[in-house]
Amino acid sequence: GPGHARMYAGLQELGVANGEDLKETLTNCTEPLKAIEQFQTENGVLLPSLQYALPFLDLHGTPRLEFHQSVFDELREKLLERVSAIALEGKVEERYKKLEDLLEKSFSLVKMPSIQPVVMCVMKHLPKVPEKKLKLVMADKDLYKACAVEVKRQIWQDNQALFGDEVSPLLKQYILEKENILFSNEISFLQNFFSPSPKTRRQGEVVQKLTQMIGKNVKLYDMVLQFLRTLFLRTRNVHYCTLRAELLMSLHDLEISEICTVDPCHKFTWCLDACIREKFVDNKRARELQGFLDGVKKGQEQVLGDLSMILCDPFAINTLALSTIRHLQDLVGQDTLPRESPDLLLLLRMLSLGQGAWDMIDSQVFKEPKMEAELITRFLPLLMSFVVDDHTFTVDQKLPSEEKGPIPYPSTIPEAFTKFLQENRIACEIGLYYILHITKQRNKNAFLRLLPALVETFSDLAFSDIFLHLLTGNLTLLGDEFALEEFCTSLFDGFFLTACSRKENVHRHVLRLLLHLHHKVAPAKLESLQKALEPTKQSGEAVKELYNQLTEKLELRKPSPAEVAETPSMELPLPTVPTPASR
Asked: What Gene Ontology cellular component terms go with this record (predicted)?
């Protein structure tokens, strides 16, 4: 049958008899048994001592095939060991000459399943497999599949489209994994999107597979970077920037100098990686990063495109923004203005380089974005005044109250703040991180004061997945406030619901939050939210699924009609205590 033919493919070319020859011999002979014996003698294992051993095995009922198979397996193992040994011994030219000769002799048998491993092993050890052989492998799906990654690299480096087909599903998987974390049903201020350390993230399946595919091949590394740039331009998805940095650092972990030394971003990324690990840019590293930026030479400005992509990684932005908020608080204590702090100015410089990545790569104009003076002279002092307001209010609360009564918390927001959040990307990013900061401090007053400024922000940043993921996590710290009508109205009606109908992702984040906190929300409010959040015909599967989960949880909380009827009206209902199941 055809399977049989494939098993012995290519033997005839080498002058080795196969089943067809035996068939022919038997068809054209007068004494079949004699002919079989002759065929066995001519084509058997040529060892004199075997002449007597084989009949002995026959007596024990061991089929000849089984015997030949075991001899064959043994020989194949020895051959594989020998090939690997040849690849390491003698002068470079000689050993490759030996392997090339071996490949020439054995390649015609590459389709024989039993011999294929040997041929593949020879190719794996050849740094340059002859072009003709690579073309034959490429043309045959099964052979291509069976190839070692060392051989595939040689094929990929001259076939960008084929390499793209291999890389593409991995990139899709990577983006999906990121989105699953951002939309995860687990909500916590302790564990969030930014919790895993860079080293842990680089152990991820996709980064490891890409690292393995690239090996030490600079050409393939460049191709992957080109894919990432193109996809970032096409989708504006910042997770591609994360992968750009993770891939470089994964090769750094393996000390692959062939690639690290030619990537001009290597040292900058390595230094920034240490900052991301600490979630803070300290003074020493700040100097180092500044040195790299100042050291970009005339004629090499294109490296700014790569550096901007590294700085656009959300993990980098998160670190820079957190460091900025910390610096602002320190400046309040030191009575220093933002423009007098070189460290703060450097953080802003890196933030604007990161936030300008898309425009720079798109326009191919490689120069650092100009920093708006207003950001430093007006916006940051405004933020500092909010920090001062909080200090003053806290101190006032502690002073013995005179006749004048309690001092109310300032409730208005300066118009300039709202305008900055709408018109200036860097101001908006820092403003959002300030709001995350006060939420994490459980500062309800400051949160409610600034919340209205989030309804309209620069390119809707306040409704982006990363911000909403962090905000929902931090809001769990204000859980008890959800029992208050006024708090819920400000948060839901005043913020979330303004975008739910036009932005599917916001709808999802609100449902995530309610799944987590529904037992804290005032019942009347919960009912109106349930109506407002009902999915429409246009809603995606994720929204419907979350809404169904929420409905199920709320059904479980409702007392049955019988229980309601039996409650004597005199007794006060007990406050509902969340049971672990309702969490």
From this structure: NELF complex
Q: How far apart are CA 450 and CA 68, in angstroms?
A: 82
pTM: 0.82
Residue 491 has pLDDT above 90, yes or no: yes
Instruction: Kindly report the number of other CB atoms within 10 A of residue 32's CB atom.
Output: 11
Side-chain-facing half-sphere of 51: CA atoms under 13 Å: 6
Are 162 and 155 contacting, i.e. CB atoms less than 8 angstroms apart? yes
What does the block give as tokens for 471? Answer: 């905000």
Give the residue extent of every domain in the chain: 47-129, 160-374, 417-552
Contacts of 62 (CB under 8 A, 6+ apart): none
Cα torsion at 499, 505, 508, 513 (round to 10°)? -70
Give dist(CA 541, CA 539) in Å, integer. Answer: 7
pLDDT at 7 over 90: no
**Each residue of 314-344: pLDDT tens digit?**
999 999 999 999 999 999 989 899 999 999 9
How many angstroms from the chain centroid is the CA of residue 262? 24
The predicted pLDDT at position 323 comes to 97
Cα 5 to Cα 23, 119, 419: the distances in Å are 13, 19, 77
> Using an 8 Å Cβ cutoff, are 537 and 566 in contact?
no
At residue 244, the 3 state secondary structure works out as helix
Tell me the pLDDT band of 583, cut-offs 50, 70 and 90: very low
Structure tokens of 46?
A: 């040529």
The region, left, alpha or beta by phi > 0 then psi within -120 to 50, assigned to residue 279 is: left
